[in-house]
Amino acid sequence: MNSSDRLLTVEQAAERLGTGVRFVRRLISERRIGYAKIGKHVRIADSVLTAYVAERTVEPVRTRRSRYGTAA
C-alpha cells in the first residue's frame, strides 16, 4: 500500500471485484487480503485488490491441436 492509494469501503471493494460484500468480509476475516482499520471502519487499498486479482489470474494453456485425429 503506497501513500497515494485510494482506500475503498468493503462495499466498493466488492463492487470492484464483482462479488458480494460477504465474500470480501470473509477475505478480511481469513486475513487473505490486507486492510486498514480506521476507527471502527475497515478500508481496503486499491492496490491490494489489484494484487489479489493479479495473484489469482490463471493464464490460458495454449496447445497445438492436430487438425486430424490421432492415428490408430
Descriptive report:
The relative contact order is 0.19. The radius of gyration is 19 Å and the shape is elongated. Helix 1 (10-17) crosses helix 2. It has three helices and three strands, in the order E-H-H-E-E-H. It has helices spanning 10-17, 21-29, 46-55; strands at 7-8, 36-38, 41-45. Strands 1-3-2 form a three-stranded antiparallel β-sheet. The chain has 72 residues and is an alpha+beta fold.
- SSE arrangement, N to C: EHHEEH
Give the integer mean of the pLDDT values: 90
Strand order of the largest sheet: 1-3-2
Low-confidence stretches: none
Helical fraction: 25-40%
Strand content: 5-15%
Query: What general form does the structure show?
Result: elongated
By DSSP (H or I, 4+ residues per run), the number of helices equals: 3
Biggest pleated sheet? 3 strands, antiparallel
Structural class: alpha+beta
Radius of gyration: 19 Å
Number of strands: 3
Distance between the termini: 58 Å
Summary?
The protein is α+β, with helices and mostly antiparallel strands and 72 residues long. It has helices spanning 10-17, 21-29, 46-55; strands at residues 7-8, 36-38, 41-45. It has a 3-stranded antiparallel sheet with strand order 1-3-2.
